[in-house]
Amino acid sequence: MAITAEDETVPKKNTLIPMVGAVVLLSLVGGGGGWLTGKLIAPAPKPAEAAASTHAAEGEKSGEGEKTAPAVSNLLELTPILTNIGYPAENLIRLQVGLVFDGPPDPALAETVNQNIVAYLRTLSLQQLQGPRGFTYLKGDLEEIASLRSQGRVTKVLIRTFVVE
Length: 165
Hints:
The protein is an alpha+beta fold. It has two domains: 11-62, no CATH class; 75-164, 2-Layer Sandwich (Tetrahydropterin Synthase, Chain A). It has six helices and four strands, in the order αααβββαααβ. Strands 1, 2, 3 and 4 form a four-stranded antiparallel beta sheet that branches. α4 packs across α6. The protein is elongated. This is Flagellar protein FliL. It comes from Aliirhizobium smilacinae. Pfam families: FliL. Belongs to the FliL family. It is found in: Cell inner membrane; Cell membrane.
């Protein structure tokens, strides 16, 4: 195709400046919309001084100086377990658990559950304990063992420490 005189006289428009302007404008609109949505959805945070004075006032009302975690009367901490796992046998596992009973805790029953947990841990392999899924399965198995051995009296197993060496 031949170049004619008409093609040379038409000036080319610079499209870079409008493109940058559009990107800046859309970024500002998006940021403003996100800020507005955040203000509408999230509650305003309390100032640190107001929260501290609220806690102090609650402590004075209840007659105690410091707030402490409430004691759970149906929780029984078991002695820490340190044993080797099934495969590889040179790896050790340290596990400390607490049992939540539906009534008053029974130390003899808790010792039976503890021994059953030790026997179960000795059958595990390292591959079964790896990752978050392995931890979830271990917690489910421990709760099932505790529930079966206690005939439903243990409602929950709380894992305090879990270390595999």
